[in-house]
Amino acid sequence: MKLLIGQILPYITVTLFTLGILYRLGRWAGARIIHNITLSPWLQTNGQVAVRIGSEAFLFRNLFRFDLALWAGAFLMHFALLNVLGGHIVGFGFLGEQFALIPGLGISPELSKEMSNLLGTTFGILLFLCLLYLLIRRLTLTKVKQVTKPSDNLWLIYLLVLVGVGDIMRLFEQSFGVEYQLVRDYIVALALFKPVVGMELLNNGFFLVHFLLVQILLIVFPFSKLMHLFGMFAERWIVNRVYKDPAPGLPNVDVAAARAAGIGLPSDAAEEGV
Amino acid sequence: MPEYKGMVQPVRATLEEMRKIHIEPVPDELKPEKAIEYLDQIRKKFRSFVMAMESCTKCGQCAENCHTYLGTRDPNNIPTNRAELIRKIYKRYFTLEGRWFGKLVGAEDISLDVIEQWYSYFYQCSQCRRCAHVCPFGIDTCEVTFIGRQLLHWLGITPKLHASVGAAMERVGNHTNLPKPGIVDTLEFMSEEIMDEFGVEVEFPVDKPDSDIMYIPSSADFLLNPYTLMGAGMFFTYIGANWTIPSTVTEAGNFGLLFDQYWTQRGNVMRLLNAAQELGIKKIVWGECGHGWRAAKMYIPSLADRPVRWPIVHIHDEIANMIRNKELKLDPSKNSKPVTLHDPCNYVRACGLNENMRTIIRAVTTDFREMTPHGMDNFCCGGGSAILFDDPEMYQRRILLSQKKAEQVRATGVGKNGDGILCAPCSICKAQLYPMVEEHELGVEVKGLVDLVGKALVWK
Ligand code: HEM
Ligand code: SF4
Ligand code: SF4
Ligand code: SF4
Question: How many helices (H) and strands (E) in chain B?
């Protein structure tokens, strides 16, 4: 069992995740942008397009403009998620000493570890709370209830469990935590196709569950609504692009001359005399 | 009665009417199977459709931003749920997710009932694109209803209104079945009216060879909105233009966009290009019609069967440009009643006319008041995409669909004394709002924008 989850499944996961995403992107690319359906007012330069798409993708501009309560939950959730994911990479990569590596700040490795811990815990808890908020929103607001399918709720519950288990490992580090060094060596070995070290990690039930849930998530990801990560950009690329109006100006029209000639005015004084 | 299992539906075109627009309806028992076949063909072409099918997160933001949901509170009128009517089928037949997880992700088998749902709810969508405008991803439910209506059309299900308009367009070149003699007569009559009311001589040249400008009016302007066409005639005369109206295309609209983008819409485009070539013109100027302007500006480039040699502009673009260049002498006091502007959705979200309409209205009126929200954030009049059905059930729907607009107009206060003006420079908006301002007792008169320009021109 541990052999399966710890040594075989990771390879299957990565393969399916990669191929799955390529499959979905290929599917989208196969259909074309037939008509120009860009939304007006038009963006005039590619710089403006980049700013618009960037502000939608990283600041959730439209949610901010039209539904602040949703924006708060969604933005904080994704922001925390981004930091948690980044934290996993950097934290394990540098064993929590990453901040000490920034030159000129004079941060000691110990301080860096503490900072890393604090940030990780904060974002972990924030992520959990935001997911909870989004779930409650789904279960209570009429309009959201009306658009929700079972899978929408299940995704939030799934992530809550995944994140919850991760948070427990952090909050009760003494009892349930894992040693960073071990994790790093384990991942490095996997990545280099070397004989795996650190399998004792998987004796920790919390780690085992966390790791398994992550892998299942990655396998299902390309076939699920989570693909909005890429869909976001694909869709925006259709509706937000540069468009330039044809130049105004009518052929052979000279308004001043027309007015001087009195075009349209009844031609004779006779009429005025009537 | 046009109702199916509790869903309102527009009256359908008959077999003969469908044949007139070149469709042989599919028998009921084959409809589900054929629907899947057609859907499979079309989904592989349009990325806008694929993305709408595959990247919604069901955040619900579009719900209260669609006037149809606001007016009816029918969950199927929430944009993402409207799209879901087809997405559930798409998922079931064309995605792994739907095949594996079925109901869990909302996938469903095709059936006649589903097709009837499509007919009801795709024809309550006014294709106003407010959902695309507010969606965090830009998902455009209008693209979904375009394709849904196309599928229905191929199956032989099309509203009587749309089918008869499509047939009229093919027969005489406009939606109202007005033949050339009728056109010429009406225009002569308008010349007289202008003389009586404004004291100026305006001619409406029809099919005049070697004209510089070809003006495409909305056919509704001949009968229902005469002041819009009179305003355009006065404008072209005022600036001394060498212009003409082609008798073969007296229609700014193109219903093909709304129910059949393959045959009907394309046919109308060819007709227009033929007219332009025959008359030897240099520039095409479009009249007041929201969906028609979108069809012309944004779809002719991708639908034309030959290089398009004529720039196509909207009359508002040209008027606004001349106002900015101070070429027109205008007297705003000729329009001194309180005015508010209803932004036709197609103008502001699909054609970029936002600023130009305002440049004009500020120059020709004295008491202009903006609605909230306005411009690109506006709400539809509720009649968009020509869901102007007059049968008793659908008429009740129209009242509900225009509720949001009514609230907006009321909030501006322009109709408080019963003498306000609601400027709605789109033929469909006008056709929807003429009765709706009465139903909602708004105390306003509906007018086009060129109408107001015509009134404000100072000739001497
Ligand atoms: C650039 C990347 C991304 C963007 C722009 C983005 C954007 C959005 C937006 C606008 C929503 C709708 C608001 C909401 O319902 O909360 C949403 C929902 C969601 N996103 Fe993302 N997302 C991104 C990446 C991700 C990733 C990598 C995940 C991975 C797990 C994810 C998970 C979710 C979930 C679970 C929801 C649904 C929340 C709910 O049900 O209310 N997102 N995303
Ligand atoms: S706003 Fe967009 S993502 Fe949200 S439910 Fe509507 S269509 Fe889906
Ligand atoms: S296009 Fe307009 S009417 Fe149709 S679903 Fe979107 S917001 Fe509603
Ligand atoms: S009818 Fe007018 S308001 Fe309504 S969709 Fe067309 S342009 Fe929009």
Answer: 24, 10
Q: B47, A227: Cβ pair inside 8 Å?
A: no
CA–centroid distance, residue B7 to ligand 1 (Å): 34
Enumerate residues 84 to 123 of chain A having a beta carbon within 8 A of any beta carbon in chain B: none
pLDDT tens sequence across B372-418: 999 999 999 999 999 999 988 899 999 999 999 999 999 999 999 99
On whether residue A204 sits in a domain, the answer given is yes
B208: exposed, middle or buried (C-beta count within 10 Å: 0-12, 13-18, 19+)? middle
Q: Which domain holds residue A44?
A: 2-244
pLDDT tens digits, one per residue of A140-149:
999 999 999 9
pTM above 0.90, yes or no: yes
Pocket test for ligand 1, best of A24, A68, A78, A88 (most atoms within 8 A of CB): A78
Q: CB contact, 8 Å: A26 with chain B? A: no
B368, amino acid identity: F
What crossing angle do the helices spanning B79-94 and B141-155 adopt, rounded to 10°?
60
In a domain, A112, yes or no: yes
pLDDT at position A274 is: 39
Query: Residue B3: which pLDDT band, with cuts at 50, 70 and 90?
Result: confident
Nearest to B299 among A35, A62, A266 (CB): A35
A252, part of any domain:
no
The alpha carbon of residue B359 is apart from the nearest alpha carbon of chain A, in Å, by 14
How many whole angstroms from B57 Cα to the centroid of ligand 1? 7
Q: How far is CA A171 from CA A113, A135, A157, A176, in A?
A: 15, 23, 20, 9
Complex-level ipTM:
0.93
Q: Which of residues 202 through 241 in chain A touch B, CB cutoff 8 A?
A: 223-225, 227-228, 231-232, 234-236, 238-240
Tens digits of residue pLDDT in B174-214: 999 999 999 999 999 999 999 999 999 999 999 999 999 99
Q: Which residue has the tokens 């399918």?
A: A149
Whether residue A261 lies inside any domain: the answer is: no
pLDDT tens digits, residue range A210-228? 999 999 999 999 999 999 9
Q: What is the pLDDT of residue B2?
A: 67
Q: Which of B148, B156, B5, B4 is nearest to B90 (CA)?
A: B148
The count of domains in chain A is 1
